[in-house]
Specification:
Number of strands: 12
Mean pLDDT: 76
CATH architecture: 3-Layer(aba) Sandwich
Largest sheet: 9 strands, mixed
Order of helices and strands: HEHHEHEHEEEEEHEHHEHHEHE
Structural class: alpha/beta
Number of domains: 1
Strand order of the largest sheet: 1-11-12-10-9-2-3-5-4
CATH topology: Rossmann fold
Helix content: 25-40%
Oligomer: single chain
Distance between the termini: 29 Å
Shape: globular
Strand content: 15-25%
Radius of gyration: 19 Å
Low-confidence stretches: 1-43, 315-319
């Protein structure tokens, strides 16, 4: 048996975390009952860090592209995917077609109607236009996916929303006329989902932090295997949130995050481990004149894996 000396256990811990990044992109898939773990020497808490491993290995992708693990469905049927902020719905419909059971939320009314038409044309895809008319938490039927109209946030209420094209945003620039802003109902993820989640994808144009705040019970009482989320300092800032706040929330929930975009120019690619330095890179170039911008000069997508809990999920199919 290989015995690890206490002096190198911390290094082994980081290496084990790094190995998880491979299967996150569909390169490897863990098997039921296999658990990798190591204790940090001296009982130290896990440091707040972000890993560039996916970039260093050339495994990253462009902005919110569909990961291979959704395309091939290595976990078999019944694994739950939660998709918040569908845009054109690529991830949602790929996951449905791959055999996942999917719960998707779309806040933009115009986008929702287009997505609803596609959903209705698919067997076992149910459209929910008013979440208040549904018993919560969501009583999912076997093999059924759900498309829900509305925003997801910290708690029930409403949020100002600018329906900009297929996406829209609650992180509204100051120059947008008030007559173009609408009110969207908000619900917390904790109210709707109370079970293990295979993938949680959040692309809410600067509202991601509040989505996570409304999912505290989900992360504490259940297992979320992995999170894909956007990190846009400009949009977060319009909601008085800093990038480090967003990262700290994920860290608190037991997630280890990796930067995932390889298509970034303008000196926006960071290859270090420091969350603070990554935040500084995001914040560069953001000033008052960027209030006319929809997006920041630098942003990234984060792929995060749960290093605090083991996901059991559905029975694994051979890959």
């Amino acid at each position: 048996m290989l015995m690890l000396q206490p002096s190198i256990i911390s290094v082994v811990t980081v290496s084990i975390v790094s190995l998880f990044a491979g299967y996150l992109l569909g390169r490897y898939e863990n098997r039921a009952g296999r658990v990798l773990s190591a204790t940090v020497s001296g009982g130290q808490e896990r440091p707040l860090m972000v890993s560039p491993l996916l970039k260093d290995l050339g495994c990253g992708w462009g902005n919110m592209q569909i990961p291979n693990l959704i395309k091939k469905n290595a976990r078999g049927t019944r694994s739950l995917v939660v998709d918040i902020g569908l845009d054109a719905g690529e991830e949602f419909f790929h996951a449905v077609n791959a055999g996942f059971e999917v719960v998707g939320f779309e806040a933009n009314p115009g986008s929702f109607q287009k997505l609803a038409s596609k959903c209705k044309a698919i067997p076992m895809c149910q459209v929910i236009e008013n979440i208040d008319q549904v018993k919560l938490p969501l009583q999912r039927e076997h093999g059924t996916s759900y498309l829900i109209q509305g925003a997801v946030g910290k708690e029930r209420g409403t949020v100002d929303f600018f329906p900009d094209g297929p996406t829209g945003t609650s992180s509204i620039p100051k120059h947008i006329p008030t007559e173009k802003i609408i009110q969207i109902p908000v619900i917390s993820l904790d109210e709707v989902i109370q079970e293990d989640v295979y993938i949680l994808k959040i692309d809410t144009q600067g509202f991601d932090y509040f989505v996570l705040q409304g999912a505290r019970n989900l992360f504490q009482s259940f297992t979320v295997r992995q999170v894909i989320t956007e990190m846009d300092a400009l949009l977060l800032g319009r909601n008085n949130v800093k990038p480090v706040d967003h990262m700290s929330q994920l860290h608190e929930y037991g997630m280890q995050c990796f930067t995932a975009r390889n298509d970034m120019g303008r000196g926006c690619t960071y290859h270090g481990d420091s969350v603070n330095e990554l935040s500084e890179m995001f914040l560069q170039g953001i000033s008052q004149d960027t209030e006319t911008r929809i997006a920041a000069p630098c942003w990234d997508d984060l792929v995060c894996i749960n290093v605090a809990k083991v996901y059991s999920g559905a029975v694994v199919n051979p890959v």
